[in-house]
Amino acid sequence: QVQLVESGGGLVQAGGSLRLSCAASGRTFSTYNMGWFRQAPGNQREFVAAISWGGGRAYYTDSVRGRFTISRDNAKNTVYLQMNSLKPEDTAVYYCAADSSAYGSRVYRETSEYEYWGQGTQITVSS
């Protein structure tokens, strides 16, 4: 069982930056591909970014590419999402998720491929 706890959310003005952290329990974090997703009111949860278990591959949805950076520190069991040039349309609850297939060769964008989820953290970007 893996527990994920996000932090770093809050209110920021458009153009500002935030860094989200997701701390994971357990000794197998370094074997999991990790993802960040978000859900705005009335919308489905959507893919934001994902990173491979070793950190060598990162993927982004088009709307955040060039503004957001996903990274991980396996020694600290933590995955990060650096968000720059934030826009009001980035407002959502952000979730981190773990794909528990150890050393997975494919990094997924689909929510159904992630078994463990954090509780979410609210990001509000004011215009």
Largest sheet: number of strands, sense, barrel closure? 7 strands, mixed
Oligomer: single chain
End-to-end span in angstroms? 40 Å
As a whole number of angstroms, the C-alpha radius of gyration is 13 Å
Helical content (DSSP H or I, runs of 4+): under 10%
Helix/strand order, N-terminal first: EEEEEEEEEEE
Q: What does the overall shape look like?
A: globular
Q: How would you concisely characterize the structure shown here?
A:
By secondary structure, this protein is mainly β. The protein has strands at residues 4-7, 10-13, 18-24, 33-39, 46-51, 58-60, 68-73, 78-83, 92-99, 116-117, 121-126.
Salient structural properties:
single chain; 127 residues; mainly beta; seven-stranded mixed β-sheet; four-stranded antiparallel β-sheet
Characterization of this structure:
The structure is a single chain. This protein is mainly β and 127 residues long. The chain is 0% helix and 46% strand. It contains no helices and 11 strands. Strands 2, 4, 5, 6, 9, 10 and 11 form a 7-stranded mixed β-sheet that branches. Strand 5 (46-51) and strand 6 (58-60) form a beta hairpin. It starts with a strand and ends with a strand. The mean pLDDT is 96.
